[in-house]
Amino acid sequence: MRRDEVVGYLVGARLAGVVSTSREASLRRYRLFAARDPRALLGIDPVGAWRQRDLVQLMADRCGVSADPRYVTGPDVIDPWRTLTALDAFADRLAEAARKGSPVVIGTGHPRRLLGFYAALADALSAAGCTVLTPAQGRRVDITTRFGLRTYNLDYVRGVALVREPGGERPGREPGAHTHSPLPVRTLLAGAAEAGGALPELVIGDHGWVCGAGQLGFEAIGLADADDPALFVGEAEGTVSLVVPLDDGARSDYYLPLTRYVLKRACLSQ
What InterPro entries does the entry give (predicted)? Predict the structure, then answer.
């Protein structure tokens, strides 16, 4: 697709433009982040004193949401041209990793929606000579959720790290659990260090996978929705290298054209 066609597709599929994320949800997450609530920090330890109005301005600059403090209800908006610009930079970083044959980690907290997107990247990077790392498989991860402490296991699908509830790999079950926690990537990286193997030169993903890795000093890039200020704060402060503003809760097949666009720009075969 040409660049204008990509923008048209993003808007038509509601991956950018008017998105399914509500303004109320975004503002609630901004308030939690300003209060340093771990549920919104996603593993980031911000340097600045980020107030809610600071976060609204940051998200307007980097994501394209409304900067009007009086806009408090209704759908949120992501600027599709900002999405496209970030997708180009994302693809260029994948191309650089492929040229170097860099070891990478790919992980998602949105396996139901984004597993196919990340798995295609893993396949293409592996074919280009990168080592897609899969350390600490099966390692236990205890995550505090709104339902209390839940136990998960670190697992991989086509090279993409995710967490499952014990026994969650049975046929007919979801591919993995939805999580914002940085604990899975911390567990993975600790397992890699304990094993004495390669550590990633690049971490690709979303939510706590990006923030948790970036906070530990690893280069991290990924996708973030309008209600995910942690990644954009991390990018602004230099903890996260690159964030693509994008609705991360759409149907999984809606991301297929973006997969093709990214891989083609990165000169990687799908």
Answer: Phosphatase_SCO2771
